[in-house]
Amino acid sequence: MAEPAAGVGRFKSNYAVERKIEPFYKGGKVQLDETGQHLFCVCGTRVNILDVASGAVLRSLEQEDQEDITAFDLSPDNEVLVTASRALLLVQWAWQEGSITRLWKAIHTAPVATMAFDPTSTLLATAADTAIRVWSLQDRSCLAVLTAHYSAVTSLTFSADCHTMLSSGRDKICIVWDLQSLQAMRTVPVFESVEAAVLLPEEPVPELGVKSPGLHFLTAGDQGMLRVWEAASGQCVHTQQRLPGPGRELTHCTLAQAAGLLLSVTADHNLLLYEARSLQLQKQFAGYSEEVLDVRFLGPEDSHIVVASNSPCLKVFELQTSACQILHGHTDIVLALDVFRKGWLFASCGKDQTIRIWRMNKAGEVTCVAQGSGHTHSVGTICCSRLKETFLVTGSQDCTVKLWSLPEALPSPGSVPVGGPVLLQAQATQRCHDKDINSVAVAPNDKLLATGSQDRTAKLWALPQCQLLGVFSGHRRGLWCVQFSPMDQVLATASADGTVKLWALQDFSCLKTFEGHDASVLKVAFVSRGTQLLSSGSDGLVKLWTIKNNECVRTLDAHEDKVWGLHCSRLDDHALTGASDSCIILWKDVTEVEQAEEQAKREEQVVKQQELDNLLHEKRYLRALGLAISLDRPHTVLTVIQAIRKDPESCEKLEATVLRLRRDQKEALLHFCVTWNTNSRHCHEAQAVLGVLLRHEAPEELLAYEGVQASLEALLPYTERHFQRLSRTLQAATFLDFLWHNMKLPPLPVAPSAL
Question: Which residues form the signal peptide (predicted)?
Fold first, then answer.
């Protein structure tokens, strides 16, 4: 863990969500508007509209039936969006306002799989199964049904002159339709299951092999590369180079002709934005991260984050712009990450039993500079040396730990290593536990190693020889995380038994146990110069603990599933979490902000209290009562009412003051009366205010007060009790008066006269 900045020693009290990276695309169609500024994509029951420049979701549109969206299309003039749901309902949107302008029911027997507008925005073509229907948007009538495909139709697109339409399908053919005769003009076999096809402008584009006039189209399919075809000859004139790695199959592509951009989508929900004429990659978006398994800050200023999800690919996000770089190299799911001290170099390991070292340059570009293999099972945990970029340690399901030395001269940032990444060899291998090793941690001085295992123990080892120094026993279930304190001779462990324990490195004794999670604790990290802990669990919670008093200071509840990833920034002012709910959350330490707000609030209260005292002294009761209500302090309001009732003309003053209040102030006053009325010492003030309101406010107005029913229900029983008490007191007083008048006092003795 990176050292906190000097001077950061105060206890933290709270974190707030500063940023949330969550899924915006879960498969299906994507489309760019003609300007290339907005990206439309399906996310379950919604169509999300993204700003291409920032990657932010500007708007989400959801149909009233709340069914999954199966298809949508944006009109060429960028004004109208039509969506189709699994319930066969078609909705026309004015998407910029987020309002529905028209609804109608499709007459397909299956959900609409794809749709497209013609350039005039008067025709809409829809496809379900193998049939294509052409609709008039003016009178909502079906003009034609086109049948020629033998498998599901995956995409439709119109030519600029409205004379031609192109359809693609999983039957490995593309069909060019004549819209005048509504007949198939040409069938082009493309030898792959095509998920999307787009018509290219009828102009020469030598970079894409388009050298002659005539109809050309581009296809995207299960072979994972974009290909350009000449319709007349049925020949493939350009093939994009296929990049290695799983999940590269293409599921969609779309062209924004005016902006000169082409967007393609891979099977693992990554969106790739190209310059249309050269197919040069411009930008990448990660639409869906599935289960997030680990997260780390990158860069000396923590400007980037790297994410390992349920995928062989790593995703690197620049926090300021949301720009994403997708890193390929691993051949199976990446399980864990760690970063070297300077922030440029980081390491990954995974189910493919390998490790990889990556380097980021100052432009944010990441390349793989080294790799190593040797474990015989999944590598589930990795930790980098803390002082210098000299070694790293891995732990595996094969129950061994390996120590890997880094060569002094790794390839420089941004350069492509000659002959591929440097091959690493394990310097030492040690069988450490009898079950899976879930966590390894290197001490701040690089001389100690801690391991945590499914066998319920943690162990301490001397580096670099991997000599066993001691065992930490006490957890009732397997350990998920071990972490050294940055300041003290202490080790923290997180376990599936729902606890976090602190251990002394000298005698291996348990110093403290923190209980609070309802399920497994998956990660633990030291913050506030080693005086506090952050823990994350499979209950979806992140907890902040103060070590000195074992207190859970705050529970952060923003995830909906297991929080596997937890990392703290080097300045100790941010935390990063990633969870099985596909969300990555950047948390900001708001302790100082909240303390400043609390101080400002206290100072404001002092000023207002002084102002209130002055107003009461000057007998400016209306201002005083309004100020007391705004402070939301029932006792202060009661003091003002008591001050008014002490006035010789109390009845008139109270009426005049209460009736001049605003309605919201009267509602608050009625609410305060409920509290006062429960106490016999203050019930007179409550009844006096109630009397004013009941005498002068119309019943309809009183019944319109917010929460009036609850207030009346609370007032009635206590008012009845006060009335009975007063009745008994009156009876007793009347009886006392009767006794006084009927008492016969004996004559007073006469003093003897002086002799």
Answer: none
Length of the chain measured in residues: 755
The pLDDT value given to residue 460: 97
Question: What confidence score (pLDDT) does residue 1 get?
Answer: 36
Q: Are 313 and 328 in contact (CB under 8 A)?
A: yes
CA gyration radius, the chain: 37
Q: DSSP letters of 24-36? A: ---SS-EEE-TTS
Instruction: Work out the number of other CB atoms within 10 angstroms of the CB of residue 420.
Output: 12
- Please tell me the least confidently modeled range out of 112-126, 306-320, 461-475, 512-526: 112-126
Measure the CA–CA gap between 152 and 172, rounded to whole angstroms: 10
Closest alpha carbon to 401 in 385, 383, 413, 387: 383
CA 450, CA 447: separation in Å to the nearest integer? 10
Q: Residue 553 and residue 600: Cα distance in Å, rounded?
A: 22
pLDDT tens digits along 536-592: 999 999 999 999 999 999 999 999 999 999 999 999 999 999 999 999 999 999 998
- DSSP string covering 495-546: ETTSEEEEEETTT--EEEEEE--SS-EEEEEEETTTTEEEEEETTSEEEEEE
Instruction: State the residue for tokens 């000097």.
Output: 6
Q: What's the start-to-end Cα distance of the chain, in Å? A: 112
The predicted model scores a pTM of 0.76
User: Partners of 401 in the beta sheet?
Assistant: 395, 430
The Cα–Cα gap between 15 and 17 comes to 7
d(CA 530, CA 699): 63
C-alpha–C-alpha distance, residues 268 and 189, integer Å: 26
SS3 of 666, please? Answer: helix
* Token pair 């902006």 in the structure block, residue: 259
Which tokens go with 274?
A: 């190209």
Structure tokens at 321: 């712009």
Separation between Cα atoms, residue 528 and residue 433, nearest integer Å: 32
Question: Which tokens is 502 given?
Answer: 């602190």
Closest of 219, 246, 265, 225 to residue 311, by C-alpha = 246
In terms of pLDDT, which residue wins out, 394 or 70? 394
The number of C-alpha atoms within 13 Å of 136 and in the hemisphere containing its C-beta is: 7
User: Using 50, 70 and 90 to split pLDDT, how confident is the model at 8?
Assistant: very low
Q: Residue 459: beta bridge partners?
A: 451, 471
Q: Mind listing the pLDDT tens digit for each residue in 99-157?
A: 889 888 877 777 888 888 888 888 889 998 889 999 888 887 888 999 999 999 999 99
Provide, rounded to the nearest whole percent, the portion of the chain with pLDDT above 70. Answer: 95
Burial 12-46 (b: 16+ CB within 10 A, else e): bbbbeeeeebebbbbbbbbbbbbebbbbbbbbbbb
CA dihedral 505, 508, 510, 511 (to 10 degrees): -30
| Interval 31-77: pLDDT, tens | 999 889 999 999 988 999 999 888 888 999 988 888 889 888 898 88
Euclidean distance between CA atoms 62 and 85, whole angstroms: 10
Residue 191 has φ and ψ, to the nearest 5°, of 65, 25
d(C-alpha 55, C-alpha 21), whole Å: 10
The answer to whether 338 and 382 are in contact (CB under 8 A) is yes
Grouping H, G, I as helix, E, B as strand and the rest as coil, residue 659 is helix
DSSP state of 210: B
Which tokens is 702 given?
A: 């009183």
